[in-house]
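User: Can you predict the 3D structure for this chain?
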Amino acid sequence: MRVGKATVRAVNGLTARWAAASEGGTVFSAAGVWPLLAFLADGAHGRARTELADALGVPAEEAAGTARELLGAMAGMRGLDTALGLWTRRTLELREAWTAGLPAGTHGVLTGDPAADRAALDAWAVRHTGGLVDRMPVEIRENTELVLAGALAMRTRWLAPFDEVPLETAYEPWAGPVERLGLRRSSVLLDRIGVAGTPDGVVTELKVLGDNALDVHLLLGEERMTPGQVLGAGLGVLDGTHRVVPGGLLPYGAPGPGLSVERVRCERPQPPRLDVTTVAYDLAAGHDLLALHRLFGLTTARDVRQGHFPGISAFPLAVGSAEQATMARFGSLGFEAAAVTAFGAVAAGPRPERRHVTTRIGAAFDRPFGFLALHRHSRLVLAAGWVTDPPPFPEYPWEHDE
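Assistant: Here is the predicted structure, written as structure tokens:
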């Protein structure tokens, strides 16, 4: 099953609006929120239904069907695991028409014992994310009648690995007494880098391809640009709003943030080369969606003075809490160690004359930047974030051996 273009636009549109409201180092997943909002919209009425539909970008009567399409398409993506869960008190009677629209096998029971319910919900979160998230981000209260949850976990391995190196940069705040964990690699594939001009400024985009069509795009904007502007530019590139000039067509000089394009002499013919430097990152964030209730269409739905979801149950229901726990980890491929001893054989005699010329592109993501994790073919963004605090370069025990 393929995810439709309209659905991709709706989910990525929520990603763009969430990015605009984000500050500092963070990671978030609109793709993890969107199906839940859709099922709530399907059972809502009145103003709550209208607000949820506006946040989703699709009519409320189409929301549940679109959510099922999205979940079905994501289930078919290699490297991506998704799940939907519903738990209710035994005394809460649900509308059969609403539950029939949910994936099979999603309905569990809240026992009323907070400790037992907490343990069960946390175990579900661990099971469906492979341990990447260890706690269900929901508050279990005495008046909690229903919990609707979604899980999303993506994993990919780079087609071309990076080397781990100490980051060298003059940019604050990463230039300091603590060496940061840098990543470096070279490639002859110049189209992995590109530059986009946007109304907010120029952005450099690097595509880091995974072996299962799950990719990460790194986005470096002009220093004056906000995280929301940089991530919004990346989303504009995905939907074709902003044109990208690929690496092979970039002019010499500094055509984009973090970029240098040079003609260099070499002793023998060499193809043009792209040298990339970036950083590893390990992010975790929690989000209170009710703090951004207008963004998610939850303004009316959070009013506990009346019920808003008669399509779910005749029992009056309101949204009492809405949270997301997220994480993202970007590395070379994990940790490997080896010791190599080599004697270098160097050429003797006069230095050969450098008669040939080639192009070298240097790309340095050595100050705060954004990222979009997405499915390559549909361009559906699964997670997005902003990197502000790379981990330190590790010290290995053998480095201190005499």
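Residues 68 and 88 are 21 Å apart (CA to CA). The longest helix spans residues 5-20.
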